[in-house]
Amino acid sequence: TLSPLLRCLAVLTLGAFVVMVLDITSKGKFNAGWLSAFFILLAGGVVASQFDQIEAGFSGMVLADRFAHMFRLVIYVGAILASLTAAGSWEGRGAVEIFGVDYFALLLLAVVGIDLLVIGSHLAVLFLGLEILSLPLYAMAIGPAHSDESVEAGAKYFMNGAFASGILLFGIAL
Length: 174
Prior knowledge:
Layout: H1 4-26, H2 32-49, E1 55-57, E2 62-64, H3 66-88, H4 95-98, H5 102-119, H6 123-142, H7 148-173
Antiparallel strand pairs: 1-2
Helix pairs in contact: 1-2, 1-5, 2-3, 2-5, 3-5, 5-6, 6-7
């Protein structure tokens, strides 16, 4: 069985893979925003079902108490709003036309990183969550790859994040 701490992460990761596979197989004939919102809602249901439980796992490296569960639910509500807004925004020119379906898969993976940041109680898990959060955000910053300005912005954001992560890791090691 899967640890209760990791069920939400597994649901969100599975959702990202389902969105990517459906994009390949159905050639964009599905609403990725609603599907990603469904997976986020499913993860929120898992968190709500274990709201009163205090769980620690991986030798105390992750900890989920009521405070963490509450923040996870707030994050999921924000992610659902972002997903549904991006699915139908700009009247016919939504995120799918601008960014592609990858936007929704990247959103789900970014929520996995935020989730790890919330339940992490060890610096290694916090660093892992920060990196899992930042990598999809680098790709989202690029946006439409046909624009030179967006590719330049994404490259600058990646370089800035790489230096910041290196300095953070050096500080953790001290």
